[in-house]
Amino acid sequence: ILAWLKTPNEVFVQGYIDLGHGVPSTVIHARSGLSQSTVSAHVATLVEAGLLVQTRVGQWILLSRNEEVIRAFARQISLHL
Q: What global pTM score does this model have?
């Protein structure tokens, strides 16, 4: 999911609606081929970790990467592992 959201215009060619705040969760679910509950659990974990940001726009739940947190996480991994 994090890799897909890095370049959403390339990954989500069909069915992607650019609402300016991220990718609709339904589009991520459709691409994954997994059950909605599985995708929701993964997304919830990434949101809780701060790696994803959820934004509600009308009926849509949009997901985007939290680049600052991802950079800090990658820095910590490279320093400590």
A: 0.86
What does the block give as tokens for 70? 């991802």
CB of 64 within 8 A of CB of 52? yes
Reading the block at residue 65, the tokens are 């990467």
Please give the backbone phi and psi of residue 73, each rounded to the nearest 5 degrees, phi first.
Answer: -65, -45
Percent of the chain at pLDDT exceeding 90: 70
In order of start, what are the domains of the chain with their CATH numbers?
Answer: 2-80 (1.10.10.10)
Q: What is the 3-state secondary structure (H, E, C) of the chain?
A: CHHHHHCHHHHCCCCCCCCCCCEEHHHHHHHHCCCHHHHHHHHHHHHHCCCEEEEEECCEEEEEECHHHHHHHHHHHHHHC
